[in-house]
User: Fold this.
Amino acid sequence: MIRSHKWMLAAAVALVAVAGALTYSRTHHPNEADEMDPQTAFTVNGSKVVQEEFGIFLQNQKALTTSYFQTNYHAEYSNEFWTTSFNGEIPIVYAKQKAVDELKRLKVEQQLMKENGEMSAASFDEFMQDLEQENALRRNKIANKETVYGLTQFSPYQYYNYVQSTHYTNLINSLASSKKYRFSDTVYKDYYEKQKENYYNKGYIYEGDIVQNGISAEKIRLDLQAISKEDDLKRGLYATASKMQLDELSDPFPYQNGQARFKLTAKQALGYKSFEDVRSDVIKLYIHEDLQRQIADRLSNAVININGPVYDAVQMK
Assistant:
């Protein structure tokens, strides 16, 4: 179960990824490594990442790292793979860097959450206890033939990101009703105007010809609201038309035991959802972008201190 008073903030899925330069030092503060407890692999602006936590994120990089080295260096997987240098790049060093980058962002987000009252400090052990309880709850629901939404069981990595995303959404909802973002509608209407094409466009109706052997085999009108979920052809053509220019021909596609192309001949805009209808969503989108700017700024200035012996002890399994 999620303990709403603690643990994490998210970069949800659909959130804008902000890259931050990794700034770290094993001896940024002369005595910091000595002051770290024996379970801490590194800190991000003082926030601890313990050995087990780091290991979870490192394991998540296994397939991605293997693929990277196979693609760029035609590397073959072997017992020596993780410590072999490929043109100066070593897989275990690469994977650890990626894991640190990911945790760096999560910790920066969590720090922002604490400042906004969305979470309080909690240990990684408490997080693992929450994970065990959540998985037990889901197992019991399945045994009792109750509905389980989402995954039937979480891995630690999946649950970390699930809780992170949940708390990020809670933060936005909380800020949306706070004085901090209680601006006049003029501010939000201006923002709506800048964002409406990407977020509040009702879409288009497309018209065109299915062309076979150089002639029009069928005229077709594509209105997404009128296309049934079972009509794969029209749904596919709608997606294709949305990327086309007028009078452009699509790539060939299967049609009536042969091949055909779609020629876009007309495009009718359906307009935009009104500000009044999406006002709440506009405010939340505004807050999300403001949070992302704050996170990006903090990432660029974040300081990571490595606890060498513990950091080095974490290896790929």
Q: What stands out?
A: The two ends are 28 Å apart (CA to CA). Residues 202 and 272 are 5 Å apart (CA to CA). Confidence is low (pLDDT under 50) at residues 1-31. The longest strand covers residues 258-269.
